[in-house]
Design a protein that fits this description.
The complex is a heterodimer of chains A (463) and B (411). Chain A has helices at residues 25-36, 41-47, 52-60, 70-75, 85-98, 102-114, 119-122, 125-138, 143-151, 154-159, 173-183, 191-200, 236-242, 246-259, 266-278, 283-292, 309-319, 326-335, 358-373, 382-391, 397-409, 415-425, 440-454; strands spanning 204-207, 210-213, 223-225, 228-230. Chain A is mainly alpha-helical. Classes of the chains: A mainly alpha (463), B alpha/beta (411).
Chain lengths: 463, 411
């Protein structure tokens, strides 16, 4: 792609497929990668005869109140130790790979990076799990509701010291971050606003793993926050914050960064900020428009983002049938720089180019190797790979390349890369030319090798 | 005539024969060339700091024992108080029996003991107190770490993968910087393109194809960035492995911390221009039956650091490397009912190196004039940081710590 240096014209109009601009495999994969970690052959096939709007609705329209894993969780009793944050993180990775509602996990991941809470301080896996559950339930609903819920979230109360924020003895930690990082951005409030806002959030603490409100510790006096006066509490304070012009822009910018392009432009931010207000802060309605836009499907946005380690690992697991140990995925994502439930600080992961340095590049290569070649513990036991190839009717070298190019590279395998990989497949153990034939031996050597090498391509690091 | 950095760079690059590399210049090469040319130079620009974090809250009172307050000490610690096999440093203090290697370093003038390190209004939460030590900010929240500030202020714009390195799976907050992610490595094996061990016959071809797939092309910005990083990484990794393969340890490194320090010695010997190393060892949260366990932990720390110093000395680097050892807090003066100790406050720090002035610094806190059952700190830990920044790392500590601190005279 050479032509993606600028956004398209009429960026906010819905993308209307045409013969010159089709809703083809490449665009289907783009949409699936951004919203549900990976384009599996099944997902691509299911999307093939639908319109973009139909596919987007299929991704967005799930019942957030109804957790598809509820029955599983009771079955997992004893296997997942919810008191341990590490266990909760592994469980989350499992859900990302296996959920029938992947966008629910994807949006939770987005919010976890935004309202970044660290389990090292919270020190209670159940409270971390509870917070992620809130992101799952409310993540596509009203941002106002989500912001109110976070002000009363037990993990957040511990993480940003809401617990010690009491009448007469305010702790400003949460008040500052809720403005600086979660809703407005730096420069949109004064130190005095921080002090006054902290008073509004007083009175909450965590008792028996529940957030409880103690009216005696709540400062019910008049506060002046951002030019408004009132007896604000943790709920009405959110309305004060969201009435600021900076608030919708802040959220629009972060949604664009996560789902469209790492460097959104001013007019794009302004447009979706306005749509957030028009839709009364409903995240789903705005995300639907964003995903359906000409902007989203433009060459400018295509492969413009660098996958986070979690997107990379979950995507790889999905592309290969999903039979991967979640603990293995967790270990790998930590090494690649993203320890789920333990962001580096309250700002979350810096993301973007910061994911990649010459150290993490090599670690990504070696992650690819581990994924493609682990034979016993983590992934792709021989039988599983055999079965996978058979199921997808893969026989020739070209079949192998086409199949994995579809699941890993949006069907976009550059011709010189194809030539090299074909040459690799058409050689025997002594490096002599020998036409590829699918056998137990070549599956175990060449097919795994192709998988490994495709996942080291720079194209594969991009979302 | 003084040879400038630029001169060295030119000479070095010529020597490495990289002129033929078209397009982008791998970031590390300048660093490499430079490091090769100035090995052995005495400028403070190539001093190295190794931070050893003792996680869990090391019991300072049983690490450095105040023998001149014997009665109060044994009264507070009737069953875990140490009386025998102590390593006496002077009339006032002695080291834990496990710290005999530190006693040797002390006698050689290579160990500084800084007594009573802490900060105002000590916090007894592991998380918060560690955060305070790692961000050097006891009063308010700080998103980046004190060594991260150093990277941002002093190393910004310098090239190379390895300007600061964390040993271990995860980056500590101390090394969180604004603009870049400091690498965390666990072994030299992280620095190569690994191939399937079950198909060694294909390894060469696979490596070659991976190089080719990552060749820099005229593509969109993100693709260019990725392929450039990858290409640099592949060249760097080759160089690192070549250099490091020549490393021979000249000391017996113990298990645990010793192996981390051995890896650091390997990287130092490779001369990649790394200024900061960070490693940690745990188990210091000794709430119960701590006596033997604590001695073993301390012995591993001291023996590991002694081996490291010996190795560095043998390689002529002994005066170029300083080790700083800290923990997030000490423990309560009174032992608890389980023959252990609970979370406390002030504790000693150690600084080790051939280039420092060894000795005893800071006054030992009183065991009778306590602050809510804890020792009162006598030395703000940020004074130790400031000393290392100003007098060892050639930085301006007032900018990095956002405050001025009186130096401690071990440097």
């Amino acid at each position: 792609m050479q032509s993606n240096s600028s956004p398209p014209d009429r960026p906010f109009e819905p993308f209307a497929p045409s013969t010159s601009d089709p809703f083809d495999t490449r665009r289907i994969c783009h949409l699936l990668r951004r919203t549900s970690f990976a384009a599996t052959p099944q997902r691509v096939e299911a999307a093939a005869n639908k319109s973009p709007a139909q596919v987007i609705d299929g991704l967005l329209n799930f019942d957030a109140e109804n957790d598809p894993f509820d029955s599983l969780v009771s079955g997992l009793e004893g296997f997942v130790n919810f008191t341990q944050p590490a266990s909760v993180a592994s469980y989350w990775l499992y859900r990302m790979v296996n959920s029938p509602q992947p966008l629910q996990e994807r949006i939770a991941l987005f919010w976890h990076g935004r309202w970044a809470t660290g389990s090292a301080k919270v020190d209670n896996g159940r409270l971390m799990h509870q917070q992620i559950q809130t992101f799952r339930e409310k993540g596509l609903g009203s941002f106002r509701e989500l912001a109110v819920a976070m002000g009363q979230d037990p993990a957040m109360l511990i993480w940003l010291d809401g617990q010690t924020n009491r009448k007469g003895k305010p702790n400003e930690n949460y008040a500052r971050e809720v403005m600086e990082l979660f809703t407005l951005g730096i420069g949109n409030y004064t130190e005095r606003d921080v002090k006054e806002l902290a008073r509004a959030f007083t009175g909450w603490r965590v008792q028996d793993e529940q957030a409880v409100f103690d009216p005696k510790q709540h400062d019910d006096g008049v506060k002046e926050v951002l030019g408004k006066k009132g007896e604000f509490d943790s709920e009405s304070a959110v309305d004060v914050l969201l009435s600021q012009p900076a608030a919708p822009k802040h959220l629009a910018k972060h949604l664009l960064r996560e789902f469209v392009h790492p460097e959104p432009q001013e007019d794009q931010i302004d447009h979706y900020a306005k749509r957030l207000i028009d839709h009364e802060w409903n995240v789903k309605a705005v995300l639907r428009e964003m995903l359906a836009s000409r902007l989203f499907f433009s060459d400018w946005a295509y492969r413009a983002r660098i996958k986070s380690p979690v997107e990379l690992a979950v995507g790889a697991a999905l592309a290969m049938g999903g039979k991967v140990s979640s603990d293995f995925l967790r270990e790998q994502t930590i090494r690649l720089g993203q320890n789920l439930l333990n962001p580096p600080n309250v700002k979350g992961w810096p993301g973007g180019y910061a994911w990649i340095n010459s150290n993490t590049v090599l670690l990504r290569f070696n992650f690819a190797m581990a994924m493609a070649t682990q034979r016993q513990r983590e992934f792709v036991r021989k039988a599983a790979l055999d079965e996978w190839l058979e199921k997808h009717k893969i026989k020739t070298a070209d079949d192998v390349l086409d199949h994995f190019a579809l699941t890993l590279l949006d069907g976009q395998l550059p011709s010189d890369a194809r030539r090299k990989l074909l040459d690799y497949m058409n050689r025997d153990a002594k490096n002599n030319e020998k036409p590829f034939k699918l056998t137990a031996d070549t599956i175990n050597s060449k097919v795994r090798g192709v998988l490994h090498m495709m996942m080291t391509m720079p194209e594969y690091q991009l979302a | 005539m003084k040879t400038t950095r630029r001169d060295l760079l030119k000479v070095g690059l010529g020597g490495l024969g990289v002129v033929s590399l078209a397009g982008t210049m791998p970031a590390f090469l300048s660093k490499f060339a430079f490091a090769e040319s100035v090995a052995g130079s005495k400028t403070s620009d190539d001093n190295i700091l190794v931070v050893v974090q003792l996680s869990g809250g090391n019991d300072g009172l049983n690490t450095v024992i105040p023998t001149n307050q014997r009665d109060a000490y044994l009264k507070a610690r009737p069953t875990i108080g140490l009386k025998d096999r102590l390593n006496t440093l002077d009339d006032n203090i002695a080291l834990n029996p496990g710290l005999t290697p530190f006693k040797d370093l002390f006698d050689a003038g290579k160990l500084a003991v800084i007594n009573g390190c802490g900060y105002p209004q000590p916090n007894r939460s592991h998380f918060r107190s560690m955060e305070i030590w790692q961000t050097a900010n006891p009063t308010s929240y700080e998103p980046t770490g004190w060594l991260g500030h150093y990277v941002d202020h002093v190393l910004r714009g310098t090239e190379g993968l390895l300007k600061a390195v964390n040993i271990g799976p995860e980056l500590p907050q101390a090394l969180v910087a604004d603009d870049e992610v400091i690498p965390s490595i666990q072994s030299i094996d992280d620095f190569r393109i690994r191939t399937d061990p079950n198909t060694p016959f294909d390894a060469k071809m696979e490596e070659e194809i991976i190089r080719q797939l990552n060749a820099v092309k005229n593509e969109a910005p993100a693709m260019q960035y990725l392929s450039r990083q990858a290409t640099n990484a592949i060249i760097e990794a080759d160089q690192i492995r070549k250099v490091v393969a020549n490393y021979k340890p000249e000391a017996d490194y113990p298990y645990g911390l010793g192996q981390q320090l051995r890896l650091i010695a390997q990287l130092i010997t490779g001369n990649f221009g790394t200024k900061l190393f960070y490693c940690q060892t745990g188990g210091f949260d000794t709430h119960a039956n701590q006596l033997g366990q604590h001695e073993r932990l301390l012995n591993n720390v001291a023996a590991s650091i002694q081996a490291f110093q010996k190795d560095m000395d043998a390689k002529g680097m002994g005066k170029k490397v300083v080790v700083m050892c800290f923990s997030e807090f000490g423990r309560r003066v009174n032992q608890n009912n389980s023959a252990g100790t609970d979370h406390g406050a002030a504790a000693p720090m150690f600084v080790i190196g051939g280039g420092i002035k060894g000795g005893i610094f800071g006054s030992y806190p009183s065991l009778t004039d306590l602050d809510d059952g804890d020792l009162r700190y006598s030395t703000d830990f940020r004074r130790v940081y400031a000393t290392l920044l100003d007098r060892w790392l050639n930085a301006d500590s007032s900018k990095i710590l956002k405050n001025t601190f009186e130096p401690v005279t071990f440097l």
